[in-house]
Amino acid sequence: MQHTSRVSERNGLYELEAGSDVLDSPRYNPDIAPTRLQQRTWNTWHITALWVGMSICVPTYTLGGVLTSYFGLSVGEALLAILLANIIVLIPLTLNAFAGTKYGIPFPVLLRSSFGVIGSNVPCLVRALVACGWFGIQTLFGGLAISLFLGSIFPAWKSLEGTGEVIGFMLFWALNLWVVIRGAESIKWLETLSAPLLLLVGAGLLSWAMPHISLTELLAQPAKRPEGASVAGYFCAGLTAMVGFWATLSLNIPDFSRYAKSQKAQIVGQILGLPLTMFLFASLGVVMTAASVALVGERVSDPVSLIGHIDNPLWVAVAMALIIVATLSTNTAANIVSPTNDFQNIAPKLIGRTRAVLLTGLVGLLLMGHELLKKLGWLHSEVSLETVYSNWLLGYSSLLGPIAGIMVVDYFVIKRQTLDLAGLYRDDVYPAWNWLGFIALAVPVLLTLLSLGSSAFSWFYDYGWFTGSALGGVVYYALCSWRGAASLARPALSARR
Predict the structure, then answer these.
(1) 41-398 has which CATH code?
(2) CA–CA separation, 472 vs 466, rounded Å?
(3) How does pLDDT run across 131-167, given as a tens digit for each residue?
């Protein structure tokens, strides 16, 4: 076995031939190793299908309702905010995907460049906690769909009520973990299969709802905000929250772009798959929620519960099966892959993919323990899942903006798209802790938290993702320039080939 690792390049894609210097390093294991060229098989359609599969989910369906109820927007304003937010978030998504595609590295390994080989674990764990929270929420929706599916086939199942939903949760929880343990090809296959099915589901739901709703009347509904209040403040706050919806994926997109065939495939695939799918499915949610009174006799804001009101057991079973596929495709890709890689980054020699997946599942289970105990009737609480979803997760996600800004500046400006691929897996090239990255992260986060108690600086919180990502990037660049880190932090790649 060769001692020194070598890096080769073909058509702008770099491949690592690991020697004992990397294979024996405590920072390396096969699951977070750079992908080989033969593993980079995801073309434009696969990337597009990935985003279709992740975007068509219950939380996307409810976004219009969240913006109208919690952010005081009209229906038209809410849908425009969703479309603009997903066009905006394409910028950090495509930029942060570049390094993953070029070097075949996942998100936590890329973070070693800007936060240090050991320091990368801090932003990784911040990202992982958000993902585990979303994993738990999506698993609740998937578990409800499984319970309704079983209830449509076995009427006696309905008598279990909340207990049946908890059983469904555990079944769906195990199914998610099984898919990810099987590896990236299983996720690719699932997303490619589910994308056309999910588009058909959306079309079917729309055809069911349209005879019962007037789009003109729906768009004419007044906004739920104080009369005479400025539209700009409410719209920008809602826009920030919607950008925060995919703020998590804008960080860990290298976890998927590392399998892309080319930069063109990842760029075009994301442009085709994300903005329009999010806009159309959120629009469907607005229409279906408005039509729910005529369809089932009461206002229902999530598709699982709405379809559960249908009297025809066959249609309920078919619809629930498709919703299970939809939620599974979202959950595995958006909420399990990232924490799986993040947890491995802590101790790659001790935590492999299977252990990391199980750890992700355990944290997600614990975070949803409160809701599961309520369903079992063992706990009574006024804290609702909708409150957690609308406030904590969306707000917390906006604090991830500085990490995105730091990553972009580090790779494109400081390192000029040049990384020491082997050095990312050793301890002798990049620092253990890059305190410049942590200072650049701390400044906008502290200002965001301080702005909560100051009406004069409330705008900094309202526009949190934008202000955080811009300030984080600017502070990081200023610190690197002041310390002369731009030249010191760019290792001589030729010396490692």
Answers:
(1) 1.10.4160.10
(2) 10
(3) 898 899 889 989 999 999 999 999 899 999 899 999 9
